[in-house]
Amino acid sequence: MVDMSEWFAISDFPVEADDDRPLAEGLFLCEVSLPIQNPTVLIDCQDDPTRTFSLFADPEQGLVLIYRNGQSLRRIELKGALPGGVGIGRFSFWWSLELNRWRMTFGRLGHVGELKANGSDPFAVSLTDLAVICQSDSLGLRHPSVLWFGVTRGSAPPHRAPWIGLRTPIETARGPVAAGNLRIGDMVVTLDSGLVPILNIVKRRLPSRGSFAPIVLRAPFLGQMTDLLVAVDQLVLRRGPTIEYLFGEEEVLIPAGALDDGMVARRDNRFAVASGIELDLGMPEIVLADGVGLLTSGPLANQPRKALADYEVQQLRSMLTAVGGRSVA
Fold first, then answer.
1. CA diameter of the chain
2. CA–CA gap between residue 147 and residue 210 (Å, rounded)
3. What is the pTM of this model?
4. What stretches of the chain show up as alpha helix (H) in DSSP?
5. Helix, strand or coil, per DSSP, at residue 222
6. HSE-CB for 249 with a 13 A CA cutoff
């Protein structure tokens, strides 16, 4: 089993580290609810008067990131009007001490165009800083519009890969097994290939809020007996006469996030961090979780069913609503 955790720290999740050395490279990400209508202090963290980390937003002027460590005070600006409209905005600040560069961006997810700035002579936070910045906000030092923030190891946000919650029951040769208890070599039941061995299991740990918030598929709307936790990008198998009528397919794959209507499925943002696994069966296969088909990872070109785009799912939901339906089954 491979641990693919890509995060130094995630807000409200303990950082067990005491290392004051600056991180050589990192990417600070923060997602907020839009629109931001007034000049706002999004984050204001002060460990003591000599150590501060603050992020300010002005809808007309842009954003300012301030970092103080001892006698050193750095202020980096991202100038421009912030995007309007309802949605999720993502702020990012990347630094590399080796390359002596920094990059800052802000944009509305799902929409083209974003504010950008870059330069040299970056500042770098330490694990000690992150332990303070990411601790639970008991002093009200975050604006309510802040959904989550964290620091990842790469220069770009980790891909929102599909994954299955640790307690989700997966059908195997020996019966249902919680996904977190599966092991390499276990034989899992697949819809198309019968019993297939697990070649690899990748552990995922991601933010559980904002655009990364996982989806609870609620019982019994998809035919299951228990609620199932999956990634927002997890593809779910659906069938039925309406699907065949609209798409000319007996079965299709639907992103779990597109099922979110508060009834059939809903986002789960109760916790700071979500943990799950990604199953590698060699090729994409549909495994059964309490009777619900879930597609495992693998080459997109080899998907065994047509995967619907979000706009196609909206078309399906609109039709079901018009006839009084409450599920995309």
1. 68
2. 6
3. 0.84
4. 127-133, 241-247, 310-322
5. coil
6. 13
Which residues are CB-contacts of 241 (< 8 A; sequence separation ≥ 6)?
none
pLDDT at 318 (0 to 100): 66
Distances 266 to 205, 221, 263, 288 between C-alpha atoms, Å: 20, 12, 7, 20
CA distance 133 to 53: 7
Burial of 141 (0-12, 13-18, 19+ CB in 10 A): middle
List the structure tokens of 188: 């899992």
In whole angstroms, give the CA distance from residue 191 to residue 295: 10
Rounded Cα distance between 85 and 136, Å, is 29
Element (H, E) at 45: strand 40-48
What CA–CA distance (Å, rounded) separates 15 from 200? 28
Q: How far apart are CA 115 and CA 133, in angstroms?
A: 24
Q: Which tokens is 35 given?
A: 């629109």
Q: What is the mean pLDDT of residues 301-329?
A: 69
Q: Which of 152, 131, 103 is nearest to 45 (CA)?
A: 131
Stretch 163-176: mean pLDDT, rounded? 96
Q: Which tokens belong to 139?
A: 């002093």
Q: Contact 91/32 with Cβ under 8 angstroms?
A: yes
Please tell me the chain's helix, strand, coil percentages from 3-state DSSP, rounded to the nearest 5. 10, 45, 45
Neighbours of 4 (CB within 10 A): 12
pLDDT tens string 94-117: 999 999 999 999 999 988 889 999
DSSP labels for 76-100? Answer: EEEESPPP-SSEEEEEEEEEETTTT
